[in-house]
Design brief:
single chain; 7-stranded mixed β-sheet; two-stranded antiparallel sheet; 50% helix
Length: 311
């Protein structure tokens, strides 16, 4: 019985082996050339992610000295176009996918202003909720979901993030994990910072827009004042009843869930809710209550009395 001889390695000097190796290399080079050609044809893509709550607060404070949205108007269309132009300059060889505009709304129902923003070309509005204290809920998670999904599917190579909340760090990390670069854009703070340091540390680059950039898009609203001598001073019971009327309207608009969030703080109202109550009462009375602490107490009493009766 003949001994079986194991087959040895191919001879690198054998012309047939050399031909096979050369053919494989040619084939590999051809495939690489095709891949590189396809990559070169595919433009880079960027998207802009705007936390509207941050923009309103930071731009309003910088230009008008207040974060209260009711005190100023923001030209969202003009500001979005300015962001798009800035991105076009920074990402010169890239195309815009779209602008994502994240804001809060009662029951996630678009306001008239948010509807007009949603109708803009290349803009998608995403809505979180607003609680009883006018605080946004769920916006950061929406940003993370979109950023991570677009990066994972290679839909974007660069993301411009306009915001400042530390909760956005996880969104940045998720997008970077899929190879996207995240660029943090902010609005100048008059004193200190309005963006969390951990967020600043995590991003790939930073850019701040100053007063001159923001000023054309923010306009202070005229202040309506009511003269103290405009008619007789209302009685406490009249103001208390007015507070109950406003409470009924508040409850119809915001629902029992937000009522449940508000009740643990009674007899105190959160600042934003108390301010809304006062402004609406003055509008209905056509006179100021700023110098009448007793009437303001009656107004709050009527507001709470109605809400507690409905719980």
């Amino acid at each position: 019985m003949d001994d079986a001889q194991p087959s040895g390695p191919s001879d690198p000097t054998d012309p047939a082996d050399l031909a096979r190796i050369s053919a494989r290399l040619d084939r590999t080079n051809e495939l690489l050339t095709r891949v590189l050609a396809e990559v070169s044809k595919t433009p880079s893509t960027h998207a802009i992610f705007v936390d509207a709550g941050y923009v309103y607060a930071a731009a309003g404070l910088l230009v008008t000295g207040t974060e209260d949205r009711r005190s100023f108007d923001l030209d969202a269309e003009g500001l979005i176009e300015a962001f798009i132009d800035k991105a076009r300059t920074i990402f010169a060889d890239s195309r815009l996918l779209r602008v994502y505009w994240y804001d809060g709304a009662r029951r996630r129902i678009h306001t008239t202003e948010q509807q007009s923003i949603a109708e803009l070309p290349d803009v998608k509005v995403r809505l979180g909720n607003l609680n009883a204290n006018n605080q946004q809920k769920g916006v950061d998670s929406l940003i993370r979901t979109d950023l991570e999904s677009l990066a994972r599917h290679r839909a974007i190579s660069d993301a411009a993030l306009v915001g400042g909340d530390e909760d956005l760090v996880s969104a940045v990390e998720a997008a970077q994990g899929y190879g996207a670069r995240v660029h943090l854009w902010g609005i100048e703070a008059g004193d200190g910072r309005n963006q969390a340091e951990p967020l600043l540390w995590e991003v790939d680059s930073q850019r701040t827009f100053d007063l001159d950039f923001c000023k054309p898009y923010v306009t202070r609203r005229p202040v309506t004042t009511y003269e103290q001598e405009n008619g007789p001073t209302p009685k406490r019971e009249e103001v208390r009843f007015l507070g109950a009327q406003i409470a009924a309207k508040w409850l119809a608009e915001r629902g029992r869930q937000e009522l449940g969030e508000l009740l643990p703080g009674r007899p105190y109202l959160p600042g934003p809710v108390d301010q809304e109550l006062l402004v609406e009462a003055e509008r209905m009375l056509q006179r100021s209550l700023r110098g009448h602490s007793d009437l303001r107490r009656s107004l709050r009493d009527g507001f709470w009395q109605h809400l507690q009766a409905q719980y």
